[in-house]
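Lecture 7 notes: from sequence to structure.
We start with the chain below.
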Amino acid sequence: MMENKFYMKRTMKFNSLQFNSTNCTKELSRYSLEVLQKNEKLEEVYKSYKDIFSKDKVKNISFSEDGFCALFLSLNGKIAVSVGESEFIVQGAQKAKTLGADISFVLLQKDGTLDTDSLDEGFDFIFISSYVIDTYVKVDLQKVKKNTKAKIVSNATVHKSEYSDIYLLDGYKLCGIGASGIFIYDEGFSKDALSQIDLLSLETSLNAYKEKKVLSRVKQRFLKEFQRAFLDDLYLFVDPESCLEFTLHLGLRDIKMRDIIRTLAFEDILITNGEGCSLGLSRPSRILQEMGYSEDESRWGLSLDFSEELSDEQIEQVVETIYKKYRQIKVLG
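Predicted structure tokens for the same chain:
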């Protein structure tokens, strides 16, 4: 009985980096841009982006397969794309490659790290972030920067690296609204490919980015509790120390993680099994498959991110609830 009261008090959200929601109840009319007139709100938003990212230009892009395909086709030169990027970026690159774009892919290794040794001075653009989607394994962009003269394009939605030349924000992940991406840059992108101006997306994403909270202090406590509760049923696809400090990625053997995600939602515990599966859909993690794991193994994956302080008792209760659901689902087959 006490356990139910505990969970009814608050929602325990561990998927805010993959799916975040924001309150957007303001008057939408003020977001319309009047033709040939100065828009003071837009200039204010632009200035905020420039202050945060130290770049001069801000543009929207459709965060979709077709949106990125159009972008890749508009770029002149040789392009490298990490398979550890968001699914729409990878899909857009694959489509653009079939249409003639000069694109190579940076592959993931079994331990979850990227094969950055394949990058050299022959590339003009490299789409590679400071972390890998799903697992949050860190990428050494300083090393990449030393080995190439290419412009480095990085998704900064979760983590911003000073070694990036061009930043990308995913509006949906930041605030749960729309399918708009935002590029912040100085030079180097086609004006045609980045011609949209969506003030609503720009401001809501900006506010969500500034309000985003991450916390590293609870990671090790969660890991220790998972190890205690699950023992040999716990599988570590990647070294937890290789991941961003406020994230944890692990696997629970011989189960479809979406089944746990759905049942935990009734307990107000929100977790995710990956970018394309953040609502517990049937697809396994693409990232784990890129690392060489089978489809069944890739369904074990679980990603958590931490944005608030929790007591040892709360952490224990969360993990115990996950363990209870895990045992129930395994018994039911």
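Points to note: The longest strand covers residues 57-62. The chain has two domains: 2-20+215-332, 40-211.
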